[in-house]
Specification:
Blueprint: E1 2-7, H1 13-26, E2 31-36, H2 40-46, H3 52-61, E3 63-66, H4 80-87, E4 92-98, E5 111-117, E6 127-131, E7 134-137, H5 143-159, E8 164-169, H6 177-189, E9 196-201, H7 202-211, E10 218-221, H8 223-236, E11 246-248, E12 253-255, H9 274-286, H10 290-305, H11 319-328
Parallel strand pairs: 1-2, 1-3, 3-12, 5-10, 8-9, 8-10
Antiparallel strand pairs: 4-5, 4-11, 6-7, 11-12
The structure holds 1,4-dihydronicotinamide adenine dinucleotide.
């Protein structure tokens, strides 16, 4: 039996994790879940929101399914999510974004992939208070990190029959940092003559995405733009409740949805587990459990086509009723 780390998160995390574990189990795939708690709940007992045991577990198993963990806004401890990605060197954040059946949105032909650099940029949170009225944030972009994420994006394109990799920057203004990312992309692109190149500024990208998203294929972005643009892309296919993701490194991979811990709907049995379920389906493909991945995805699509949906995508099913419906359709 395969052992996989399960970080069940907080907020809606435990509710959606329970749903996904139940569905995978009902599909007949036996997994030994190595459950690891992290975040605010463990600070008091263990002195840190990200205890070493969590990192050790992911390293040992090489793979994890992760529900969201809350980060205090504007104060408090550093993000467990950012720390985990950094400590495990999960340098690539992969966020495929494709319409799901029977979820009505403005566009029905979205099929793009956001490849977000996951370790540096302003998102690393290197900040200091200069004086009482001034704060400073440092944007780090390195050649090494830019090169490996661009290679990842091009390799992904080659391996998944994609035609184009578009690089997204603001290199007209941040000429050195985003300029380095862009120039590195150009160098890497030379080794992939079969993949089309495209360059776009992030502000124009946002406008183009909300007008005509089907023109995009694979996008490669520095960390912060990737963070923001992937929420925008989630909106194109029905919102955060359905947007899947994965953090991939050389030695391990952590599969997690794009969304956060949604404290506004915590404990109400209404959270949509689809984003975590789709992340889990990708995880199963990653460990070559293709049949189970297919079986679960088919059951999910049938459930959506039967018009059984959670509130965020226009339905009225609870998390548990939706979960039971998927299980029935397996
Ligand atoms: P959020 O993604 O948690 O929620 C934004 C909106 O989307 C809310 O209205 C929420 O109810 C809704 N939503 C999100 N997931 C949903 C789901 N599965 N089903 C139905 N509705 C859903 O973003 P927010 O509120 O900005 O952040 C909340 C907390 O989550 C913060 O502490 C943030 O730092 C953390 N966070 C954690 C992430 C992670 O663990 N990877 C990623 C993003 C945010």
């Amino acid at each position: 039996m395969r052992t996989i780390t399960l970080i069940n998160g907080d907020g809606i995390g435990p509710e959606i994790s329970e749903s996904v574990v139940k569905i995978i189990d009902a599909a007949g795939l036996k997994i030994d879940w190595d459950v690891q708690t992290a975040g605010a709940d463990v600070i008091e007992s263990e002195g840190t929101p990200l205890p070493n045991r969590v990192l050790k577990s992911v390293k040992r198993n090489g793979i994890a399914l992760k529900a969201p963990v809350t980060t205090p806004i504007g104060k408090g401890f550093r993000s467990v999510n950012v720390q985990l990605r950094k400590d495990l060197d999960l340098y690539a954040n992969l966020r495929p974004c494709k319409n799901l059946p029977n979820i009505k949105t403005k566009f029905d032909d979205v099929d793009l992939v956001v490849v977000r650099e996951n370790t540096e940029d302003l998102y690393a949170g290197i900040e200091r208070q200069v004086d009482e009225n001034t704060a400073e944030s440092i944007k780090i972009i390195t050649k090494n990190a830019s090169e490996r994420i661009c290679k990842f994006a091009f390799n992904y394109a080659v391996n998944n029959n994609r035609n184009e990799v578009c690089v997204v920057t603001k290199a007209n203004i941040m000429k050195l940092s985003d300029g380095l990312f862009l120039n590195t992309y150009r160098e890497v692109a030379e080794n992939y003559p079969q993949i089309k190149q495209r360059e776009i500024l992030v502000d124009n990208l946002c406008m183009q995405l909300v007008q005509n998203p089907s023109q995009f294929d694979v996008l490669v972005l520095p960390n912060l733009y990737g963070d923001i643009v992937s929420d925008l892309c989630a909106g194109l296919i029905g919102g955060l409740g359905v947007a899947q993701g994965a953090n991939i490194g050389y030695d391990c991979a952590v599969f997690e949805p794009v969304h956060g811990s949604a404290p506004d709907i915590k404990g109400q049995n209404k959270a949509n587990p689809t984003a975590l379920l789709m992340s889990a389906v990708e995880m199963l493909r990653y460990i070559k459990e293709f049949d189970y991945a297919q079986k679960i995805e088919k059951a999910l699509f049938k459930t959506l086509n039967d018009n059984i949906k959670t509130f965020d995508i226009g339905g009225s099913s609870s998390t548990t009723d939706y979960t039971d419906a998927i299980i029935k359709n397996l």
